[in-house]
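Project outcomes to date are best conveyed with an example. Our students and postdoctoral researchers have been running inverse folding experiments weekly, and each run begins with a structure described purely in tokens. The record below, which covers 290 residues, was selected by the lab manager from last quarter's runs and is presented without edits.
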């Protein structure tokens, strides 16, 4: 039996616990945040677990857990850090010839003149997106220059606090009426996808973010082969074993919007047959290399 350490006990933990146990992998919740840890007398021994699932999202807590647990991770520190940096991901993908939205990276503080020049590159509205948040946190849409500069002012106020680690954001083209997909790639192979769609009432009320955590509904879909090849190319370009790839499709365009190296696992029925067999094999492979 392989002992797998998982930092969060939310949806992914609950969904994969039983299927992995059936495949010889015992899933353990190993909390690393919102607690106290005596470094000289830690709550874990180095041989308590064989492998970690994905590196903790809070990188400081992750570093402590990594030092105390002494285990390899399916997605390690480097992969989580890479995916967290949205601008780095888009830059790598564009250099690799993969389709991404037109984007400008802004490292605060910059002058109002520079911000105006950024806004004028696009046909309004524009999307303003913090560079390292998840679940759609802080993402805003600006329909005119005044609104755009106001959003940037708020970001500058936040960035005035010296404890703010990331003082950058993205300005991107807005793709109206785009259909949103989250596609999962495991060790280089596409293993399933969901379409994320807002309820009609939410759309009528002006909601436009398709994150499941903000009320969107995820439905399993079969993707064209060319789309599967695209997301596999994304994972290969970033060298991330277990990756969620977000696609936006407008009818005439298909772009890679974001990636997530700590993706939530949905219900098994929304993935390709054998998903958990592949996941168990990937975890076992990491444990064997330790």
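After processing, the design step wrote out the following sequence:
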């Amino acid at each position: 039996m392989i002992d797998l350490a998982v930092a969060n006990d939310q949806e992914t933990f609950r969904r994969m616990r039983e299927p992995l146990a059936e495949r010889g992998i015992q899933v353990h919740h190993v909390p690393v945040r919102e607690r106290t840890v005596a470094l000289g007398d830690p709550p874990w021994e180095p041989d308590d677990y064989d492998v970690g699932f994905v590196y903790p999202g809070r990188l400081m807590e992750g570093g402590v857990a990594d030092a105390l647990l002494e285990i390899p991770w399916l997605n390690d520190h480097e992969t989580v850090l890479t995916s967290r940096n949205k601008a780095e991901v888009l830059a790598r993908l564009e250099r690799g010839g993969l389709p991404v939205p037109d984007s400008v990276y802004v490292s605060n503080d910059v002058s109002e003149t520079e911000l105006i020049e950024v806004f004028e590159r696009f046909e309004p509205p524009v999307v303003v997106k913090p560079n390292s948040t998840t679940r759609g946190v802080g993402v805003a849409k600006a329909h005119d220059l005044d609104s755009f500069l106001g959003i940037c002012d708020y970001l500058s106020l936040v960035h005035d606090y010296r404890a703010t680690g990331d003082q950058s954001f993205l300005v991107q083209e807005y793709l109206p009426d785009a259909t949103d997909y989250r596609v999962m790639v495991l060790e280089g192979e596409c293993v399933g996808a969901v379409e994320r769609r807002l309820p009609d009432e939410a759309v009528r009320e002006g909601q436009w973010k398709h994150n499941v955590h903000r009320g969107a509904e995820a439905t399993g879909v079969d993707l064209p082969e060319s789309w599967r090849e695209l997301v596999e190319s994304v994972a290969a370009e970033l060298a991330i074993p277990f990756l969620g790839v977000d696609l936006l499709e407008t009818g005439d365009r298909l772009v890679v919007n974001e990636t997530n190296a700590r993706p939530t696992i949905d219900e098994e029925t929304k993935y390709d047959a054998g998903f958990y067999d592949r996941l168990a094999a990937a975890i076992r492979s990491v444990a064997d290399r330790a």
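The chain has a mean pLDDT of 90. The first strand starts at residue 2 and ends at 6. The training component of this project remains on track.
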